[in-house]
Design a protein that fits this description.
Strand order of the largest sheet: 8-9-10-6-11-12
Structural class: alpha+beta
Largest sheet: 6 strands, antiparallel
Number of domains: 3
Helix content: 40-55%
Number of strands: 13
Number of helices: 17
Strand content: 15-25%
Length: 498
């Protein structure tokens, strides 16, 4: 049913009637469900009692409607508020006024600690309804500004939970053009019936389904970051002229597009180069991400280490299958501008990582992760590369030399073992105050463990390292590059053997 009335009042009444019909249709079917069947429905998006609907209506020059569903026990069930219709140029100033109204200034019920996830307020973190609406409205504004540039069919554009109990969705066109069955989530009800039937028939073991998790709304914390410099992941990733000019479709938010397992942790990546790890430990997530980026260097894929301030954080319901879905709301730790994202590449060329290469990167990264000493060396290499690319030659030299010194020490320790030197005597040789790196290089050379070219290289650059550390001599770009390339080969040959 398309809106055809001439006056705004008539249009608003038609929209309200459409919502009331959807509520009635849903509740009629929901009343027939068993307790088991109801457990397969996400409560946020359901027209259960109590329900309140609020719609933000942008009508000109292109029509969009932002639908918000509340479940506030302190408000009347079935309350429907229509804001608009507004011209696009009017909507921001009107929404700002609406957000000051009492219903939006109320504290939203939150079942878990959000940390910085919705932390748009200052100080007490009240998490008002208006706080939760900030990200939703931002996405709405971006969509109505950019969707006219793309060929998008009318209907649902995006939807995701609003906080822990409510729901929002953006429609291109009028909601009255959406079938009542779709608004009333009849397909979700049919799915719930099918899942319950599988349990009754023994196809699914009920104990495998964590109903407690559904009822208590357990959340999984996820940290992630984009590759930087940016990449495109996939076998067919050629950009259109429009993408090169404007960036990806405005709707291409980070996605749970492809799944992988990393040391028993679930991870995801998408075609635009975001990598995500499910873990509550932020430091662990950062180290895993940097291990993946470090291994990428070995495949000639430029990658910088991610800093804590450059990571994104989000949460998802534990009983929700996210594959193929957008992250919805997410929060950058400090600044979105610090690290690249698909929104700001403006025609810049990107490295392609095909699926087979990405699979190899993840497989090797997991093996490296399980070897703590090798993992640390790989992260030194990643830091060295970042400094080298930024013309920070002294820093690049130091990180590269750490890898080389570890290699020298390892070869020296192995030499002592082969000579079957007792522990007390070996302890003297391992004392850095008496046996410096220069001494170890000499011993390894005299015993033909180092080749002549290796001996010459290591002796020369060990001297330059000492001058840098003890007298502050600067490192040239060529010296930094030579030491980086030597350390790169150490890491590559070591990883090739695992």
């Amino acid at each position: 049913m398309a809106l055809s009335m001439d006056t705004s009042d008539d249009q608003i009444q038609i929209l309200k009637n459409w919502m009331l019909t959807a509520i009635g249709t849903f509740r009629g079917e929901y009343a027939k469900l068993t307790k088991l069947e109801r457990k397969y429905l996400s409560p946020n998006a359901l027209f259960t009692d109590p329900s309140q609907i609020e719609i933000f209506w942008a009508s000109k020059p292109v029509e969009y409607q932002l639908f918000v569903l509340f479940h506030d026990s302190n408000r009347n069930d079935g309350e429907i508020i229509i804001n608009g219709p507004y011209n696009h140029s009017e909507i921001i100033q009107n929404v700002i006024k609406i957000m000051e109204e009492p219903r939006w200034q109320k504290k939203a019920p939150i079942d878990h600690e959000l940390d910085s996830f919705f932390d748009t307020d200052i100080g007490d973190r009240e998490h008002k309804y208006s706080d939760l609406f900030v990200g939703v409205f931002d996405n709405f504004l971006r969509s109505i500004q950019n969707l006219p540039l793309h060929s998008v069919p009318k209907g649902l554009i995006f939807s995701f939970p609003l906080g822990d109990h409510d729901y929002c969705a953006l429609y291109y066109g009028s909601i009255t053009e959406v079938k009542i069955q779709d608004l009333a989530r009849i397909s979700d009800i049919e799915y719930a019936k099918q899942q319950a039937m599988k349990i009754k028939n023994g196809a699914i073991i009920e104990s495998q389904i964590s109903f407690d998790s559904v009822n208590t709304k357990e959340y999984i914390t996820i940290f992630g970051a984009y590759y930087y410099p940016g990449v495109r992941i996939g076998d067919n990733v050629e950009l259109s002229f429009q993408e090169k000019l404007q960036g990806p479709n405005i709707l291409e938010y980070p996605k749970y597009e492809y799944q992988f397992i990393f040391d028993q942790k679930v991870g995801y990546y998408d075609r635009y180069g975001v990598v995500l790890i499910e873990t509550t430990a932020e430091a662990e997530a950062k180290k895993i991400l940097n291990t993946i980026f470090g291994v990428s260097l070995l495949f000639n894929i430029e990658a910088y280490p991610v800093r804590t301030s450059e990571m994104l954080e989000t949460k998802r319901l534990s009983n929700y299958n996210p594959i193929g879905k957008s992250l919805g709301s997410y929060q950058w730790k400090l600044s979105v501008s610090k690290r690249d994202s698909p929104r700001n590449f403006g025609g810049l060329r990107r490295t392609k990582i095909n699926f087979a290469t990405m699979e190899n990167i993840l497989k090797i990264a997991e093996k490296v992760w399980q070897n703590g000493d090798l993992n640390d060396s790989l992260l030194f290499l990643l830091e060295a590369f970042s400094h080298l690319e930024n013309s920070e030659y002294s820093q690049a030299f130091i990180f590269s030399w750490l890898i080389i010194e570890k290699m020298i020490t390892k070869k020296f320790d192995q030499f002592l073992m082969e000579k079957k030197i007792n522990k007390n005597r070996a302890k003297k040789f391992r004392n850095p105050e008496k046996w410096s790196t220069a001494n170890k290089i000499e011993v390894l050379s005299l015993n033909e463990i180092l080749k002549d070219a290796e001996y010459t290289f290591l002796s020369e650059f060990n001297t330059k390292r000492n001058k840098l550390v003890h007298t502050g001599n600067r490192i040239s770009d060529s010296d930094a590059k030579n030491v980086y390339e030597f350390s790169f080969q150490i890491i590559k040959s070591t990883i090739d053997m695992i």
